Amino acid sequence: MKISDYLSHEELKRLASALLVVLGFIAIAAFFGFTVVPGLRYQAHDSGEALVQAVQGETGWLDPTDYPVMVREVIPPIDPRTVMTPNATLMARGRALFAQTCATCHGPEGKGDGPGGAGLNPKPRNFTASAGWKNGTHLEDIYKTLEEGVKGSSMVSYNYLTKKDRMALAHVVQSLGAFDHGASDPKAIASLEKLFASAGEVIPNRIPVARAVDVLCREYAETRPQPPTSTIR
């Protein structure tokens, strides 16, 4: 006997579609099982070292803490005088961002010794040393790194942060090294000032990854016709 003796061609197609949906859910569950769960176990392991705690909503894609819901925000142009030179408010914001987004890999003092960077190759940048900076150590160079990331490394773009937050981070990163960072290029600084003064930005809506996956799975299931219930005799 063959299965076709009991099911029509259309019923077989519907059964195959249902099977694909089940396999899709299994694949998603396996993906999270092999990526997120090991990360959680690593964080829970007590190595005797002081670990840097990630703060919710600041560490990015697929982080166990995940992003909170954020509503679309329109930010007007910024007075360059408030961001091009360090001030107490800007530096406080930058230090908080550094602890939340950078210290896991670069270490709390920027020495490239954070627990998250232990297995990375190349190793995270040591901001206290003057050698090896890919884009340079000037303020505009650091801002460019935050804007674009560094190809061939684990340093990704931080362009999901606002321009003001990126500049706050740039000031803090530069402050971690006691060496002479050199004079900035006047044209590059003027270009940055123009960027802040002439163009605002739009921060899009943002939802947690877990919720996005749930929505996608639900929408996928709703678009697939459910096979009719039948009794096989």
Feature tags:
233 residues; mainly alpha; Cytochrome Bc1 Complex, Chain D, domain 2; two-stranded antiparallel sheet; 7 helices; 2 strands; elongated
Question: Could you walk me through the main structural features you see in this protein, from its secondary elements to its overall organization?
Answer:
The protein is an all-alpha fold and 233 residues long. The protein has 2 domains: 7-52 and 209-223; 73-203, Cytochrome Bc1 Complex, Chain D, domain 2, CATH 1.10.760.10. It has 7 helices and 2 strands, in the order H-E-H-H-H-H-H-E-H. It has helices at 9-44, 88-101, 103-106, 139-148, 163-175, 186-198, 209-223, and strands at residues 73-75, 201-203. A two-stranded antiparallel ribbon has the order 1-2. It is elongated, with a radius of gyration of 25 Å. It starts with 8 loop residues before the first helix and ends in a 10-residue tail after the last helix. Residues 36-65 have low confidence and may be disordered.
What is the strand and helix layout of this fold?
Layout (H helix, E strand, L loop, with lengths): L8 H36 L28 E3 L12 H14 L1 H4 L32 H10 L14 H13 L10 H13 L2 E3 L5 H15 L10
Antiparallel strand pairs: 1-2
Helix pairs in contact: 2-5, 4-5
Structure, briefly:
The protein has helices at 9-44, 88-101, 103-106, 139-148, 163-175, 186-198, 209-223, and strands at 73-75, 201-203. It is an all-alpha fold and 233 residues long.
